[in-house]
Amino acid sequence: MKNLTNKVLIITGAGSGIGRALALQLAREGARLALNDWNTKTLQATVDLIGQDQSLVYSQAFDVSDRPAWESFAKKVNDHFGQIDGIFNNAGITTFPETIPEMDPIDFSRVLEINLWGVIHGSQVVIPYLLKQKASLVVNVSSLLGLMGYGGQGAYVTAKFAVRGFTETLRQELAGTGVLVTAIHPGPVKTNLTRNIKFHDQDLVNKLSRVFDDAATTTPEAAAEIIIKGIKKGKHRILLSPRTKMLDRLVRLLPNSYHRYLPRTFRPGHLIKKALAKRAAEKQGAILGETSV
Ligand SMILES: NC(=O)c1ccc[n+]([C@@H]2O[C@H](COP(=O)([O-])OP(=O)(O)OC[C@H]3O[C@@H](n4cnc5c(N)ncnc54)[C@H](O)[C@@H]3O)[C@@H](O)[C@H]2O)c1
Q1: Which DSSP state fits 114?
Q2: DSSP character for 146?
Q3: Is residue 191 lining ligand 1, measured as CB closer than 6 Å?
Q4: Is the separation of the CB atoms in 75 and 83 below 8 Å?
Q5: Is 85 in the pocket of ligand 1 (CB under 6 A)?
Q6: Does residue 2 lie within any of the structural domains?
Q7: Which tens digits make up the pLDDT trace of 11-44?
Q8: Is the CB of 64 under 6 A from ligand 1?
Q9: Residue 278 sits in a domain of what CATH number?
C-alpha cells in the first residue's frame, strides 16, 4: 500500500512505545486512525499528541483479549469512518523472567490471551471489513523472540512464534485478495514494555528495565518509520534492526546449535539469574511456611 492518506487504520496498544509512534507517524501521513489501548490515560495522551482534527481520530479503551469488545469496536470504527483499510495488531505484554517449569500457568495463559489471542481476535473480526477494500493491511507484531528461543521468556516466545505462524498462514490464505499480510519482528526497542511488567517486586522490574534500555538500540520512532516504509514497499516480513537480521540468519544457519553462539545480551544475564534465584527462594520459603503451619 503505497499511499496511506485517508486510509482508516486500527492500531492496538497505541498508548505507548511502537503503537504510539506508529499513530503519530501515520497521522502525519494523513491516515484516519482508530486507536486502542487498555490504558485510558495513555491512550488519550496519544490522541492529544496527534492534536489534529479530532474527527480523523477515533479511540476506545479495551482489552484486546476480549472478543465481544473487538466486535463492538470494529463495528463502531466502520460506522464512524465508513470503511476500515488496515489493522496493526501491536498491543502486547511481557513478564518478569521465569523459567517454563517455574511459571504459573495463569500468568502463562495471560500472555497467550493478550499477545496471541489479541492478534487472532483483531484479525478475524476486522478481515471481513478489509476484504471490502481493493487494497488493505493486516500487520501483526511478533518479535525477534518469534524467530529464536530465549530462556526466561517462555510464554512470550510461545506467543510470538505463534503470531508468526498465524501471520504466515493468513498471508497464504489471503493471497490474491488485495490484503497485504505482514509480520513485524522487532529486536529490543526502547519502550515501556519491561516497565509495564506486573510483578510483586518493583525494584527488580526497575533494574530489569535499565538492563533492557541499555540493550535496546532502536527507538520507537525509528521502529515505526521502518514498519511504514516496509508496508509501502509491500513487504511480508519486516525485521527491525541489523542485529535482528544477523540473529535470524544465525538461527536459520545453525538451527541445532544457535543458542551456543548468542551474544551475552541475548542470554539470561547475571541480574536475571539473581532475580530467578531470589524468586525461587521466596517460593521455597512460602512452601516451607505453609507446611510448618
Ligand atoms: N520493545 C521491544 O523491544 C519489543 C521487541 C519485540 C516485540 N515487541 C512487541 O511490540 C509491541 C509493542 O510493544 P512496545 O515495546 O511498544 O511496549 P509498550 O509497553 O511501550 O506498549 C505496549 C502497549 O500495549 C498496551 N497493552 C498491553 N496489553 C494490552 C491489552 N490487553 N489490551 C490493550 N492494550 C494493551 C499497553 O498498555 C501499552 O500501551 C508488543 O507486541 C511487543 O511484544 C516489542
Answers
A1: I
A2: G
A3: yes
A4: no
A5: no
A6: no
A7: 999 999 999 999 999 999 999 999 999 999 999 9
A8: yes
A9: 3.40.50.720
Instruction: Give the integer Cα–Cα distance in Å for 79 and 57.
Output: 13
Which residues neighbour 152 within 8 Å (Cβ) at sequence distance 6 or greater? Answer: 97, 98, 99, 268, 272, 276
Whether 244 is covered by a domain: the verdict is yes
The whole domain housing 209 covers 8-292
Q: Confidence class of residue 293 from pLDDT cuts 50, 70 and 90? A: very low
Integer Cα distance of 241 and 265 in angstroms: 15
In this predicted structure, what is the pLDDT of residue 211? Answer: 84
The single residue of 150, 156, 258, 261 carrying the catalytic annotation is 156
Which of 3, 80, 73, 78 shows the shortest CA–CA distance to 43?
73
H or E stretch at 139: strand 136-141
Q: Is 156 a catalytic residue?
A: yes
- 162-188: per-residue pLDDT in tens? 999 999 999 999 999 999 999 999 999
Query: To which H or E segment does residue 58 belong?
Result: strand 57-61
Question: Is 191 within a domain?
Answer: yes
> Counting atoms of ligand 1 from 1, which one is nearest the CA of 195?
19
Domains in the chain, number: 1
Look-up of cell digits 499480510: 181
- Cell numbers representing residue 125 in the block: 473480526
